[in-house]
Specification:
Oligomer: single chain
Number of strands: 17
CATH superfamily of the domain at 228-329: Immunoglobulins
Order of helices and strands: HHHHHHHEEEEEEEEEEEEEHEEEE
Strand content: 15-25%
Shape: elongated
Largest sheet: 6 strands, mixed
Helix content: 10-25%
Length: about 425
């Protein structure tokens, strides 16, 4: 409040000093009509400042900040500091170890608590019940709903008045209409601009003036948001059961279409769907031994990640931070081809699996990594009959006659892995 009072006083002094800009020679050059117009303008500005001061005296103003930058663990900067301030105003403690503008574990935990506190507004859109710690679009919207800078009316907008001398209409100042031009490029947060070429940032944002304390229809130079896409869930540690429906969620900026993949531990991927990036969520049911459409692989119990990338190319992509686990239901665990289905207590016959050792099979032999032969994953072990090794001479086998020095063909029949020749 002290700062706002100081700003009002400073604004008033600017108005007074404006009077002294018109030194004696310039004043003589002004007509009576022009002087009267300037006095009227000054009176209007003083009235506006007085109204703003009255609002401050009544204590109706509060701390505010417009949150526009997405944040995640490991980020640094003033936006992180302002986020921490908002969280503490919510009664969510941020440890001193996360100070100095650092988004650490304690800040992430506070963000999770904030998201779960306002779950209907922040998490429900993504089909989530637990917070993620990532400050994405819905979290930013809720922060701005509570702490965003909004004017009750134009008279309460706290801005330094822009004065234009009637004697110098050709001289434009910041926030005048068409102040920015290709000959005078404006920086981020300056206006009014008409086109991208008026801005050093290369981007003129339309109708965002209210964000900067100006009229809502004013166009302002801004930095154009970088395209991004981020997996939100599953992001590591979750357990999904085969045959049940779950939501894959993500956050994106400036991306239209994307592809979703299941990422195996060995780096192989299995395509799940083409999606519209703006949807931010996709419901999926993964069945055990599901056949991938883009490669000869099937999905079995194990650890996976979600990969999402832009249709424009793999340069814009994101992967779950850690693995989530696909597990079998109790019914699945007791069905043929489930992991460890065969056991000494439940012997499998030839062509059944999965087995772990020879003692799991009625045939006495568990063949390793032969699942593909039976339409299963290649790493599956299957009970088979082990053939007895043999070797039998078929020719010459008695009664033949050969001339000394001639070539003789010796033939035999065998199976097994090794054959010795003499």
């Amino acid at each position: 409040m002290y700062y706002k009072k100081t700003l009002l006083v400073t604004s008033f002094l600017i108005i007074l000093s404006f009077l002294f800009i018109f030194n004696t020679p310039n004043t003589k050059a002004m007509t009576v009509t022009e002087i009267q117009a300037l006095v009227q303008q000054l009176q209007q500005q003083i009235t506006q400042l007085q109204k703003q001061l009255d609002v401050i005296e009544e204590g109706s103003t509060a701390w505010c900040h417009n949150f526009n930058i997405k944040l995640r663990y490991g980020d640094t900067g003033n936006e992180v500091n302002l986020l921490q301030l908002a969280l503490e105003k919510e009664g969510l403690y941020v440890s001193l170890t996360d100070r100095n503008n650092y988004f650490g574990n304690h800040t992430a935990a506070a963000v999770v608590s904030f998201q779960e506190k306002y779950a209907d507004d922040v998490l429900a859109h993504w089909g989530l019940k637990n917070g993620t710690g990532y400050v994405g679009s819905t979290t930013l919207n809720k922060l701005n709903e509570i702490y965003g800078c909004r004017e009750k009316n134009e008279e309460e907008t706290l801005t330094t008045p822009q004065l234009t001398s009637p004697a110098s209409d050709s001289d434009k100042s910041l926030w005048d209409w068409d102040y920015c031009s290709s000959d005078y490029l404006c920086n981020t947060g300056e206006g009014d601009c008409d086109r991208d070429s008026d801005c050093s940032t290369g981007y003129c944002a339309s109708n965002v003036g209210r964000k900067y304390g100006q009229t809502s229809s004013m166009d302002i130079c801004e930095g154009k948001e970088t395209e991004s896409i981020t997996v939100i869930s599953p992001n590591g540690g979750e357990e999904w059961k085969f045959g049940e429906t779950y939501n894959i969620t993500w956050d994106s900026t400036g991306v239209e279409d994307a592809y979703l993949y299941l990422w195996f531990e060995n780096g192989v991927t299995c395509k799940l769907a083409d999606v519209s990036a703006g949807d931010g969520t996709y419901s999926v049911k993964i069945e055990e031994n599901m056949q991938c459409s883009d490669l000869p692989s099937t999905v079995s119990a194990g650890q996976y990640k979600i990969l999402i990338y832009s249709e424009a190319g793999m340069a814009l992509k994101d992967l779950s931070d850690d693995y989530f686990t696909l597990i079998e239901t109790e019914d699945q665990a007791s069905s043929l081809w489930s992991l460890d289905y065969c056991s000494p207590d439940r012997l499998c016959n030839a062509g059944e699996g999965d087995c772990d050792s020879d003692s799991d099979c009625s045939t006495g032999y568990c063949a390793s990594n032969v699942g593909r032969k039976y339409g299963q994953t290649s790493s599956m072990d299957v009970c088979e009959k082990k053939e007895t090794e043999f070797i039998t001479v078929t020719s010459p086998n008695g009664g033949e006659e050969f001339q000394q020095g001639s070539n003789i063909i010796i033939t035999w029949d065998s199976n097994g892995d090794r054959l010795y020749r003499y």
